[in-house]
Design a protein that fits this description.
The complex is a heterodimer.
Chain A: E1 10-11, E2 13-21, H1 26-39, E3 44-49, E4 58-66, E5 79-82, H2 88-93, E6 100-104, E7 118-121, H3 123-130, H4 135-151, H5 155-165, H6 170-190, E8 197-198, E9 209-212, H7 213-223, E10 228-231, H8 238-251, E11 262-265, H9 269-281, E12 286-290, H10 292-308, E13 312-318, H11 335-339, E14 349-351, H12 356-373, E15 376-382, H13 383-387, E16 389-392, H14 411-416, E17 445-447, H15 461-476, E18 486-488, E19 495-500, H16 504-515, E20 521-526, E21 528-529, H17 533-540, E22 544-549, H18 555-563, E23 572-576, H19 585-598
Parallel strand pairs in A: 1-8, 2-5, 5-6, 6-7, 10-11, 10-12, 12-13, 13-15, 14-15, 19-20, 19-22, 22-23
Antiparallel strand pairs in A: 2-4, 3-4, 9-16, 14-21, 18-20
Helix pairs in contact in A: 1-4, 1-5, 3-4, 3-6, 4-6, 5-6, 7-8, 7-12, 9-10, 16-19
Chain B: H1 28-43, E1 50-54, H2 58-61, E2 71-74, H3 80-90, E3 95-101, H4 102-108, H5 110-119, E4 123-129, E5 132-133, E6 139-140, H6 163-169, E7 174-179, H7 183-194, E8 199-205, H8 221-226, E9 228-230, E10 233-237, E11 253-257, E12 263-267, H9 278-290, E13 294-301, H10 308-312, H11 324-327, H12 331-341
Parallel strand pairs in B: 1-2, 1-3, 3-4, 4-8, 7-8, 9-13
Antiparallel strand pairs in B: 5-6, 7-13, 10-12, 11-12
Helix pairs in contact in B: 1-7, 3-5, 4-5, 6-9
The chains are: A alpha/beta, B alpha/beta.
């Protein structure tokens, strides 16, 4: 393809798709590209689409640069890097005309797309020149050099990103910098054509950095005073537990050198949930993290904690269900399960972060809510938020002291409560007082069986009804004490969009797409269940409300329909879609437009 | 005026009793509850320092019938070990006394049982073993012996799971078997287990008077009485009783030191069984099994194992007693983390 016409420059507005094989170290290369662009102040986001496999299966990494701050993967790739023979032809076939192709010549596979400018480099051969044994890994650094040349990534930003990636390992830093530099030199010498896409430095917020949601939750829970972490490895939550394990020694050793948080790798998720409940019952802050299959296994215990009123925190980093599903892909498919987990009538508090800042904040807040309401509190994240890197300007220190809830710790405190009973609603808020094992204060045998206000076994119909009614009242009472929704409201209250969680990363782009058609769109991000009363008033103020979510059945929509007053229900319209990939703005915007047309 | 007998911490036995049992009259489990009350009282353990744990089933109901001054948790079926693990991690000062059944431990909860042993959780784990599910009307459990027959229905043809043999194979630090009808033996074992640090598994054959107390059942009163192979006589000497003041038995004896300074004295011991030797313990179990007999006594003991809490390197203060100052890192610590992430 001839490229001699004067090229129009497209700065900081393109998507790169990098196709590699799992286990070849390409994640390091990809993060170096992402971080070096971030260092230049380019608004950038990265998505790792990886397989459930240790080595060999295909993996794609999507990097999007966007001066508009758009963070969803974009509708198409502008630049395709081909490293994986197994997906080579399919990757090529999917490209739109004009897509730039960078490929490893040593794959010895044809690039027969005349409509796409292509740039080959003998990456494996060059990597062998540095170190034959490491060639399979090192060859990935050559496309970093190639992209640095084509896009104009600055040398100092590259160096900083490499140093960050291989912290302290001087040999690795040197080798990888050399590979990148060889790739860059090869491209400079051999590739005559330019491409339209460039990165351009922007003024970078000096406080900003990129971090995965899981690590943010890990740090938040440590600042929340976690006493016991029980966990069973499961993608995509394992790095949350490992984050806690990594940070504990620095942050949570007592004066005698012992830890103030026990970490137990449990035999399964049932045991992990049991340990959380045991810790909460004994007066500690227990937590586990898992994904959907784990929640399924924990459900019996969750009902026990609800009924016996024991605090505990469970994080669900959602992956694609049902069953084993797509274990390394993202979804918001567990929401209704969390809200009503376990048999019988149950209802649980669910906190739903949409940013890494909120991951940190809810990391500590979940414990306060759990002890305040003496129940299981879920944190609901997903693979996209949890395992991809997002920008923050730094985490904020908790703005309130730890809330240990209604625990009676002395006889004086006990005497001050009139007519104490473990399950008596003394204060009228549905939350009873409790005493701890070891305190000697009014002990009872906790049980999952029916019990009266004093905790004594009971099958009395009136007692049972009173108990479950009080539990309902207790959780209802949490509504307006939980994080309020984030509302961005237009003056002209035409269309409202309710969404939650990681959809935050796509909403700006979706909103711009909708407004470009002349619509006026307000948005409301729900941050907790049971939903805040401001969610209801948002719906009151809008004629039509779309409930937007990353699942098949419209789970939040179902919850809203069940709990809203009848006159508001006709205003709600569900737009729900899931295919395992992080949400592409175009897909959801089009679905919203279709829904609005149908319901016009 | 009658003078009430007090224990070493000046408490009457009534401070250790619980509510009225709702089990069948004559149930072996009620005898075990009485032994637990007796053992805790005689050992002079403050009731508030004990945490009673159980799963689901007839046996797991019994914590309501003993130690009414202790907190307790009647959890879910087969999952008591995990709840105990969590509680034990945040309050290591509590003495955990757990009661489970053969259904609760050998079937639905076998995984948690195994892993609690593997971690050497510091607890007393009593299995009230009758070979049947009582609350659901008498189905066989996994500990019923091949050839045993309950009151109604066919003879059991499947091999049993021997929980003591399993515990020994897993390296459990204290393994004993007893019989609910052997009050003295059981009391000594439970008292010693309370003084042990680490996992103490006590498998107590406890006949179900309703569904399997017929003579064809290997776990009936009559059968166990006739087929109990007692390894040794047991005498428990608490740490607060000077051992010099205890009569020296006539025959051979072995003294085993418990962590709390108390002694378990094994009397009329022969050469056949050495409780520090797992092979000896396992062969005693298997020999008895071949003869359709029950071997009772202290099967295995090892006081050298690290407990779960020790292995984790926790601070000495129970975690549940730590202040906010000790639990929440400082604002400076967070500033420092932010700064490092920024590359400064």
């Amino acid at each position: 393809m001839e490229m001699h016409v004067k090229m129009e420059r497209i700065c900081n507005d393109f998507t790169i798709n990098i196709a590699t094989a799992n286990g070849t170290g390409s994640q390091s290369s990809n993060l170096i590209i992402l971080n070096s662009m971030f260092q230049m102040g380019v608004p950038v986001s990265g998505k790792n689409l990886f397989p459930s496999n240790i080595s060999g299966l295909p993996t794609w990494f999507i990097i999007r640069a966007s001066d508009n701050g758009y963070q969803s993967p974009g509708d198409k790739a502008h630049i395709q890097v081909l490293m994986n023979k197994d997906t080579w032809f399919k990757d090529l076939e999917s490209l739109e005309p004009g897509t730039i192709v960078i490929y490893n010549e040593d794959a010895k596979l044809p690039v027969d797309r005349d409509d796409c400018p292509s740039f080959g480099m003998p990456m494996t051969k060059m990597a062998r020149g540095i170190n034959p044994k490491l060639a399979r890994l090192m060859c990935n650094m050559y496309y970093v050099g190639a992209l640095a040349h084509l896009l104009g990534i600055e040398q100092n930003a590259l160096e900083m990103a490499v140093r960050n990636q291989f912290k302290g390992k001087e040999k690795a830093i040197e080798l990888n910098l050399r590979a990148i530099s060889e790739g860059l030199d090869y491209a400079t010498e051999n590739w005559e054509d330019e491409i339209p896409y460039r990165v351009e430095s922007r003024e970078k917020d000096p406080d900003s950095f990129l971090i995965e949601g899981n690590e943010a939750i890990a740090l938040g829970s440590i600042f929340g005073g976690i006493n016991m972490l029980s966990w069973y490895p499961i993608t995509p939550s394992s790095s949350l537990a490992e984050g806690i394990i990594q940070w504990l020694p620095e942050l949570r050793d007592a004066d005698d050198g012992g830890s103030t948080c026990a970490v137990i790798q449990a035999e399964d998720e049932l045991a992990a949930a049991g340990m959380v409940i045991g810790a909460g019952w004994a007066g500690g802050r227990g937590m586990t993290c898992t994904s959907g299959p784990g929640i399924s296994l924990m459900s019996e215990f969750i009902g026990l904690a609800y009924f016996a009123e024991v605090p505990g925190v469970i994080w669900d980093v959602n992956r694609v269900g049902p069953s084993t599903g797509l274990p390394t892909r993202t979804q918001q498919g567990d929401l209704s399960m969390l809200y009503e987990a376990s048999h019988g009538d149950t209802q649980h508090i669910v906190l739903i972060p949409g940013t890494v800042d909120e991951c940190f904040e809810y990391g500590w807040r979940t414990f306060d809510y759990a002890e305040r309401f003496q129940t299981i509190v879920f944190g609901f994240s997903d693979l996209d938020l949890g395992m991809n890197r997002w920008s923050t300007s730094g985490f904020e220190y908790p703005d309130s002291p730890m809330d240990r809830g209604k625990v009676l710790r002395s006889q004086e405190e006990m005497d001050a409560v009139e007519n104490y009973g473990r399950y008596r609603d003394v204060d009228g808020d549905g939350i009873p007082y409790r005493t701890l094992p070891g305190s000697g204060l009014d002990p009872i045998l906790y049980r999952g069986t029916g019990h009266d206000e004093d905790g004594i076994y009971s099958e009395d119909p009136d007692v049972y009804y009173a108990t479950i009614s009080r539990l309902k009242k207790k959780i209802e009472g949490a509504r307006d004490l939980l994080p309020a929704p984030i509302i961005r409201e237009e003056e002209e209250q035409q269309i409202g969009v309710i969404y939650y969680g990681s959809m935050e990363n796509s909403i700006t782009e979706i909103d711009d797409m909708l407004e470009s058609t002349g619509l006026s769109v307000s948005t409301c991000r729900v941050r907790a269940l049971p939903y805040h009363s401001e969610v209801e008033s948002f719906i009151e103020r809008h004629e039509k409300v779309i409930v937007l979510e990353i699942n098949r059945d419209g789970q939040m929509y179902g919850i809203l329909r069940k709990e809203l007053p009848a006159h508001l229900i006709p205003r709600l319209h569900s737009v729900a879609y899931t295919d395992g990939l992080p949400p592409r703005a175009r897909v959801y915007a089009d679905m919203i437009l279709d829904t609005l047309e149908v319901t016009a | 005026m009658t003078v009430m007998k007090l224990n070493v911490i000046d408490l009457e036995k009534s401070e250790y009793t619980g509510g009225k049992s709702s089990l069948c009259p004559g149930c072996g489990h009620d005898q075990i509850s009485n032994v637990i009350i007796q053992a805790a009282w005689e050992n002079g353990i403050p009731p508030e320092g004990i945490a009673k744990m159980s799963g689901i089933g007839c046996s797991s109901k019994t914590p309501a019938y003993f130690l009414g001054k202790s907190h307790g948790f009647n959890t879910v079926h087969g999952r008591m070990p995990s709840v105990t693990t969590g509680a034990s991690m945040v309050n290591r000062s509590l003495s955990f006394l757990a009661v489970s059944g053969d259904g609760d431990t050998a079937s639905i909860g076998i995984g948690q049982f195994i892993h609690a042993i593997r971690r050497n959780l510091d607890m007393v784990y009593i299995i009230e073993n009758n070979g049947v599910y009582g609350l659901t009307k008498g189905q066989y459990s996994a500990t019923v012996e091949r050839g045993s027959k309950k009151k109604k229905g066919a003879m059991n043809e499947q091999p049993p799971i021997d929980l003591c043999a399993m515990a020994i194979n897993l390296g459990c630090s204290f393994v004993a078997r007893s019989f609910s009808g052997s009050k003295k033996q059981l009391t000594s074992i439970i008292r010693a287990a309370m003084g042990h640090r680490g996992m103490a598994v006590i498998d107590v054959i406890s006949p179900c008077v309703t569904f399997s107390n017929n003579d064809e059942s290997y776990k009936s009163y009559n059968y166990v009485k006739e087929n109990d192979e007692v390894l040794h006589l047991l005498d428990y000497i608490p740490h607060f009783t000077p051992i010099e003041e205890v009569d020296i038995p006539e025959g051979e004896f072995d003294d085993i030191q418990m962590f709390d300074g108390s002694t378990l004295r094994l009397e009329t011991v022969g050469d056949e069984h050495d409780p520090s030797d797992p092979m000896s313990a396992l062969s005693a179990i298997h020999r008895a099994e071949m003869d359709n007999k029950h071997v009772t006594g202290l099967l295995y003991y090892d006081n050298s194992m690290q407990t779960a809490e020790e292995a984790l390197g926790l601070t000495e203060t129970p975690l549940s007693a730590l202040s906010e100052h000790e639990l929440r890192p400082s604002a400076d610590a967070l500033d420092n983390i932010n700064s490092r992430f920024r590359g400064n």
